[in-house]
Design brief:
With 135 residues, the chain is α+β, with helices and mostly antiparallel strands. It contains 1 helix and 10 strands. It has a 10-stranded antiparallel sheet with strand order 4-3-2-1-10-9-8-7-6-5, with no helix packed on it.
Protein backbone atom coordinates (compact mmCIF):
# COMPACT_ATOMS: atom_id res chain seq x y z
CA UNK A 1 0.00 0.00 0.00
CA UNK A 2 2.76 2.49 0.87
CA UNK A 3 4.38 1.81 -2.54
CA UNK A 4 1.09 2.63 -4.21
CA UNK A 5 0.86 5.92 -2.30
CA UNK A 6 4.45 6.75 -3.30
CA UNK A 7 3.56 5.96 -6.90
CA UNK A 8 0.84 8.63 -6.84
CA UNK A 9 2.61 11.24 -4.71
CA UNK A 10 6.00 11.27 -6.50
CA UNK A 11 4.54 12.52 -9.81
CA UNK A 12 2.87 15.40 -7.95
CA UNK A 13 6.26 16.61 -6.70
CA UNK A 14 7.75 16.26 -10.18
CA UNK A 15 4.88 18.18 -11.78
CA UNK A 16 5.14 20.84 -9.10
CA UNK A 17 8.84 21.37 -9.80
CA UNK A 18 8.27 21.57 -13.55
CA UNK A 19 5.40 24.04 -13.28
CA UNK A 20 7.40 26.20 -10.86
CA UNK A 21 10.31 26.45 -13.25
CA UNK A 22 8.05 27.39 -16.09
CA UNK A 23 6.49 30.25 -14.14
CA UNK A 24 9.51 32.45 -15.03
CA UNK A 25 9.62 31.47 -18.70
CA UNK A 26 8.44 34.31 -20.91
CA UNK A 27 8.81 38.05 -21.29
CA UNK A 28 8.54 40.38 -18.31
CA UNK A 29 8.37 44.17 -18.29
CA UNK A 30 9.36 46.73 -15.69
CA UNK A 31 9.75 50.46 -15.34
CA UNK A 32 12.95 51.74 -13.75
CA UNK A 33 13.72 55.47 -13.53
CA UNK A 34 10.98 56.22 -16.10
CA UNK A 35 12.55 53.78 -18.57
CA UNK A 36 10.69 50.64 -19.64
CA UNK A 37 12.74 47.49 -19.97
CA UNK A 38 12.21 43.79 -20.44
CA UNK A 39 13.61 40.60 -18.96
CA UNK A 40 13.27 37.44 -21.02
CA UNK A 41 13.61 33.85 -19.77
CA UNK A 42 13.52 31.06 -22.35
CA UNK A 43 12.90 27.36 -21.84
CA UNK A 44 16.50 26.46 -22.82
CA UNK A 45 18.03 28.33 -19.86
CA UNK A 46 18.95 31.57 -21.62
CA UNK A 47 17.99 35.02 -20.35
CA UNK A 48 18.24 38.52 -21.80
CA UNK A 49 17.72 42.10 -20.68
CA UNK A 50 16.24 44.54 -23.20
CA UNK A 51 16.50 48.27 -22.49
CA UNK A 52 15.87 51.02 -25.04
CA UNK A 53 15.84 48.45 -27.83
CA UNK A 54 19.29 47.10 -26.90
CA UNK A 55 19.45 43.42 -25.97
CA UNK A 56 22.08 42.08 -23.60
CA UNK A 57 21.98 38.34 -23.24
CA UNK A 58 20.38 35.32 -24.81
CA UNK A 59 22.14 32.59 -26.80
CA UNK A 60 24.35 35.10 -28.57
CA UNK A 61 24.94 38.83 -28.28
CA UNK A 62 27.82 41.25 -28.69
CA UNK A 63 29.33 43.44 -26.00
CA UNK A 64 32.53 45.42 -26.61
CA UNK A 65 32.93 43.58 -29.96
CA UNK A 66 32.99 40.21 -28.20
CA UNK A 67 30.40 37.48 -28.61
CA UNK A 68 28.69 36.43 -25.40
CA UNK A 69 25.74 34.55 -23.97
CA UNK A 70 23.67 34.82 -20.80
CA UNK A 71 22.17 31.86 -18.96
CA UNK A 72 20.16 31.66 -15.77
CA UNK A 73 19.70 29.27 -12.86
CA UNK A 74 16.82 29.45 -10.39
CA UNK A 75 16.81 28.05 -6.86
CA UNK A 76 13.23 27.56 -5.71
CA UNK A 77 14.37 25.98 -2.44
CA UNK A 78 15.18 29.37 -0.87
CA UNK A 79 12.99 32.21 0.33
CA UNK A 80 13.12 34.50 -1.50
CA UNK A 81 13.83 32.62 -4.74
CA UNK A 82 17.45 33.00 -5.87
CA UNK A 83 18.21 33.75 -9.51
CA UNK A 84 21.75 33.65 -10.90
CA UNK A 85 22.50 35.12 -14.31
CA UNK A 86 25.81 34.05 -15.85
CA UNK A 87 27.32 36.22 -18.59
CA UNK A 88 29.94 34.30 -20.56
CA UNK A 89 32.35 35.47 -23.25
CA UNK A 90 32.06 32.67 -25.79
CA UNK A 91 35.63 32.87 -27.14
CA UNK A 92 37.52 32.95 -23.83
CA UNK A 93 34.98 31.24 -21.57
CA UNK A 94 35.40 34.06 -19.04
CA UNK A 95 32.21 34.58 -17.04
CA UNK A 96 30.59 36.88 -14.50
CA UNK A 97 27.57 36.21 -12.31
CA UNK A 98 24.76 38.61 -11.50
CA UNK A 99 22.97 37.52 -8.33
CA UNK A 100 19.32 38.25 -7.73
CA UNK A 101 16.26 37.42 -5.67
CA UNK A 102 12.63 37.15 -6.70
CA UNK A 103 9.27 36.78 -5.02
CA UNK A 104 5.98 36.11 -6.80
CA UNK A 105 3.08 38.25 -5.64
CA UNK A 106 0.85 36.43 -8.14
CA UNK A 107 1.53 34.28 -11.22
CA UNK A 108 2.07 37.37 -13.41
CA UNK A 109 3.85 39.71 -10.97
CA UNK A 110 7.29 39.33 -9.41
CA UNK A 111 9.26 41.51 -7.01
CA UNK A 112 12.84 41.42 -8.26
CA UNK A 113 16.17 42.68 -6.94
CA UNK A 114 19.57 42.15 -8.53
CA UNK A 115 23.08 43.17 -7.59
CA UNK A 116 25.84 43.74 -10.13
CA UNK A 117 28.64 43.56 -7.51
CA UNK A 118 28.71 39.76 -7.04
CA UNK A 119 26.74 40.02 -3.77
CA UNK A 120 23.21 38.63 -3.60
CA UNK A 121 20.64 41.08 -2.23
CA UNK A 122 19.12 39.82 1.01
CA UNK A 123 15.88 41.77 0.80
CA UNK A 124 13.69 43.87 -1.43
CA UNK A 125 14.48 47.56 -1.08
CA UNK A 126 14.45 50.86 -3.00
CA UNK A 127 16.55 49.21 -5.74
CA UNK A 128 13.93 46.50 -6.29
CA UNK A 129 11.62 46.53 -9.29
CA UNK A 130 8.28 44.90 -10.02
CA UNK A 131 8.17 42.70 -13.10
CA UNK A 132 4.87 42.14 -14.91
CA UNK A 133 4.43 39.26 -17.34
CA UNK A 134 3.86 40.39 -20.94
CA UNK A 135 0.89 38.49 -22.34
Amino acid sequence: MKYLISFFIAPLFILSAVSQKETFIGKWTAEDHNEIGYLLFDSEGYAAFEISGQIMGGKEFYINDQKGKMTYAINYETTPIEIDFTLTKIESGESKKLLGIAEFTDKNTVNFNINFDNVRPSQFDKNSITLKRVK
